[in-house]
Specification:
The protein is mainly beta and 481 residues long. It has helices spanning 2-8, 38-42, 299-308, 313-317, 323-329, 336-350, 365-371, 376-389; strands at residues 11-16, 54-68, 72-85, 95-101, 107-119, 122-127, 133-137, 142-148, 157-166, 171-176, 183-193, 196-204, 210-226, 239-259, 277-285, 293-294, 352-353, 373-374, 393-399, 419-426, 429-433, 453-457, 463-467.
Length: 481
């Protein structure tokens, strides 16, 4: 099949960003925002894909780090996209949705957009007004910034830009060079202080048009205040010192051109496994006069960090809210299997799944129990915690759903995971459970969770891989009249 040949030539590589670069960049190719070429507006078809409903003329992402004395380093991500619309079925490209997490102090700033149309032989430019921009809350800390570009019609060129600012730089934004529409130019540029070492997860079957590295000299200025008084909180009379630290900024630039539209096909598990993309995850840090500090460069380290995280290991360890609840469910149950079934039946029949998926919990244990509702993380981690309270050996399993793409088992890339299920073992038996559906029996996972492997989160520094593929039967029936 066509997709099999595509997967055969898919190249997936891991490479650590080097500290020293010497190659210099070519001149920037980013077009000026707010000024399109007349030829772009007059274009009636894309010559490399004449039947395309739209073509991404330019897609530019620029990641950089800024520093201030109060917050330290922050990550800034600037986007600039220009798209030519040929047909009505591409109008949805003018409706933009950007996710952000307020717990990371994420902010979406400087949103600007224009639509360009040809009217009476002249290019007419329509500005997107501020009232077209609004926020939509999804969960406790997660929300979308949404906006729609105005006056879109067949033949329009749309263009928008925005900046994403975040305190979190553990993972840098994943860049997808390919989409469901052809892309004429896609560029991703990152500028990283020498103190941070990232691992690059590159997935590509098309060669880069540009793959360049360089370095730049940067400076941090900061102030140190010394108080004369023995009381450090005393005001006035102190000595002020001004300091300057020079450091190198390592810059990488990747460009793909004339990227064909990705056409989804039957039997492809996830389009994310098949498109050109690139992501970066922090592997280690090394600040001046300090040793190299690994961040998350082994599976053991990933397990350790997850179990320390308040919204993962912290959720599993909160036993006091469930103590009486578990005791009530297993009263009179003598065998391990009876205890497992009693707890599983209680959770799947009494807790409503709100369709929210992810690695970490969004709510506290007490809130989940009181409201009887949660996402897959809350429900299935609660299940594991209740099994443990009943004296059963139970662990969560992290996996990537079929639509989310495959896990790269050679390196711990955390954002490759997006779902939790429960694992319990006793009396030489092993069971995989997902309590998000009241109709789901033991040992039958939902079809979207039947990925190849899952990471069993055991004790700190311990893990194993569970084979999920074809382990249990799962079916879905659709009736039509």
């Amino acid at each position: 099949m066509k997709n099999n040949s595509l997967l055969l030539i898919l190249w997936i590589g891991l490479s650590v960003l080097a500290i020293n670069f010497s190659t210099s960049f070519a001149q920037s190719t980013a077009p000026k925002f707010g000024k399109v070429e007349e030829s772009e507006v007059k274009m009636t078809a894309y010559d490399k894909d004449p039947n395309a409903s739209a073509v991404v003329l330019f897609d530019y992402g620029d990641v950089k780090f800024t520093y201030n004395e109060t917050d330290g380093f922050k990550r800034e991500f600037e986007i600039h996209i220009r798209i030519k619309i040929f047909k009505k079925d591409a109008y949805d490209l003018a409706n933009i949705k950007i996710g952000y997490n307020s717990s990371n102090k994420d902010k979406i700033l400087d949103i600007k957009g224009f639509t360009y149309n040809l009217e009476n032989g002249q290019v007419q430019k329509v500005k997107m007004e501020k009232d077209a921009i609004f926020d939509e809350k999804v969960a406790n800390d997660y929300a979308y910034k949404k906006f729609a570009l105005p006056n879109v019609k067949e033949g329009s060129v749309i263009e928008y830009t925005y900046k994403s600012v975040s305190d979190s730089y553990f993972t840098l934004p994943t860049w997808r060079f390919q989409s469901s529409h052809p892309v004429a130019w896609s560029e991703y540029k990152v500028a990283i202080p020498e103190y941070f070492n990232y691992v690059t997860n590159s997935q590509a079957y098309q060669a880069f048009h540009i793959n360049e590295q360089s370095e730049n000299n940067k400076t941090i200025n900061f102030t140190e205040r010394h108080s004369i008084s023995a009381d450090p909180s005393a005001v006035g009379g102190g000595r002020v010192e001004y300091h300057k630290v020079d450091y190198k900024e390592n810059i990488s630039r990747w460009v793909m051109t004339d990227v064909p539209a990705f056409k989804d096909e039957k039997f492809i598990t996830s389009y994310r496994d098949c498109i050109n993309s690139l992501g970066l995850q922090l592997a280690s840090t090394q600040f001046p006069n300090s040793p190299l500090k690994p961040v998350l460069n082994t599976w053991e380290k990933l397990i350790e960090q997850l179990l320390k995280h308040e919204d993962y290991g912290g959720f599993l360890d909160k036993r006091s809210p469930i103590k009486d609840l578990v005791a009530k469910q297993i009263v009179g149950k003598t065998s391990n299997k009876e205890k497992m079934m009693a707890i599983y039946d209680y959770v799947k029949n009494n807790f409503k799944y709100n369709d929210d998926d992810g690695i970490f919990t969004e709510k506290k244990v007490k809130e989940v129990i009181e409201k009887k509702e949660g996402g897959s993380a809350e429900i299935n981690l609660l299940l594991v915690s209740m099994f443990r309270e009943a004296g059963l050996e139970a662990y969560p399993i992290l996996l990537s759903t079929r639509g989310n793409g495959k896990i790269n088992v050679t390196y711990p890339i955390l954002n490759k995971f997006n779902y939790n299920i429960a694992y319990v073992t006793f009396d030489n038996e092993e069971h995989l459970l997902d309590a998000t559906d009241p109709m789901r029996p033991v040992d039958m996972l939902p079809e979207y969770a039947l990925s190849e492997q899952g990471l069993v989160i055991m004790k700190e520094g311990e893990f194993s891989w569970a084979n999920l593929l074809n382990r249990y039967k799962s079916s879905q029936m659709v009736y039509a009249k």
